[in-house]
Amino acid sequence: MTEEQKLIQVGKSWRIGLVLALLAAIILAIGAKLVSLYVEDQDFLQKQGDARSLRVIQVPAHRGMITDRNGDPLAVSAPVATVWADPKMFELEHVSLGKAARYLGTSRERLVKKISDKRSRRFMYLKRQVEPTLADKIRALKIPGLHVERDYKRFYPAGEVVGHLVGFTNRDGQGQEGLELAFDSALRAEPGKQLVLKDLLGRTVKHIRSESPAQHGKSLQLTIDMRLQYLAYRELKAAVTAHKADSASLVMLDAKSGELLAMANYPAYNPNNPAERVSNSIRNRAVTDTFEPGSTIKPLTVSAALMSGRYSVRSVINTAPGYMRVKTKTIRDHRNYGELDMTGIITKSSNVGTAKLALSLEPGSLHNLFNNVGLGHATGIGLPGEQAGRLPFLGDGQVLQRAILSYGYGLAVTPLQLAQAYLPLANNGVMMPVSLLRGESKLSADRVMPERVARQIRAMMKTVISVKGTGRQAAIPGYSVAGKTGTVHKVGNRGYIEDQYISVFAGMAPATNPEVVAVVMVDNPKGQEHYGGEVAAPVFSRAVGGTLRLRNVPPDALLQPKGQVAQR
Using H for helix, E for strand and C for coil, what is the string for 264-316? Predict the structure, then answer.
């Protein structure tokens, strides 16, 4: 080997050694870095990796269901989806963006602009309450930055029939009206939290663990019977249409338990349609609107007279000549009824007769009984906006006010209050608290009048439905009915309005052993008829008659001898 070849060989060996040395140095450096990362920086790197891939997501929970007494749903949470975007990660050039835009009800250009304008954000809603089938189509597009999550939407199967009572929620599931608002804390759901591993495109790769479980809302079972609710709503709608009235309300109670069986108003609104949720249509008139009850209060006035001990059912009041002067006002009957016994005062609906009874009693007698049957304060049923009405306390010198109070003027009640006030007459003198929830603990019942008086008044009120009374059209074939009509002038800014009326009928059936108490109030009928016996009584007949048949209450009218008189 020549000298030149030796030099070449040495050069090659040196280069190989250098390369090997460099490789060894690199390997050592990498090894050292790995050791450093594994030993010294492990916690830091783990946190950084988790921050980029681990996410805490919400686990949707559904709001509690509202059902009627038979378990039929009145408010349910239906599964839907929420579509949202992460503008920073959203792929604006994705091939399926046009399809996504169509599914979201917009154009590709508008969708791109909407996301581009919010490019600095990490979250924005695109569409809420999306149907599950459409949500599946959007999810299948697999567009980076476009997310579809499960959610719930409130749905009301009965629609406008029970809208005023049940109310509605907003998009965030918060109660806004009716029972949804009153029992929001019980119905409300608390979403759960879950730790998940997501990939670069935001897709869930693995569920790590549950941070907190989803808490579904509690369900409510009402005392309402939807069969009776439909029946009441149908009859109200027909009456408002036939008499061209402004509105109407009907309240139906179980005479023995005080449970609310039906509460309907017309006009109504569909809680499933946000466009119909305007302020004038969503209020529950049966608990928010007050009116003067008029002649429907007369049975309570006669009750106070019998309870005083000064009168019996045989007592006679001379109402001639058909009117009486009390201070500055003349109180009139429709005609001169002459001498009337207690039954006759109710049958003929004599203003003069009840006024004379009231003025002969102690000044606080009427107020005490009216207060004891619930007038002047809220029922405590728990519905939003319930009014307490008005019941003035009148002294010795307020003679005129005491006289007009006896026949239903000068005080204000809601339809629910008036129905509650009739419960003692139906329940043999025992006042039952009104209830709306099945199984709720009830307040103790109170006796507010002797059983004898309640039975006597019921027998008197049956004559109102006879051919001699003002409520003939409230009769129910096969059943005896006890009730009272009422027709009052509406109050305006300058006093009573001459040609506007409120027509009322309050009653119970079967009269021999009442199962149902109901009040019908029709506001401002503008047809040819406006009296309570012509407008409200027929609604009572059809609604309560259907109720008795649906509840399998046996007929009692055929079992009762003709000409039966009130108990003495």
Answer: EEECCCCCCCHHHCCHHHHCCHHHHCCECCHHHHHHHHHHHHHHCCCCCCCCE
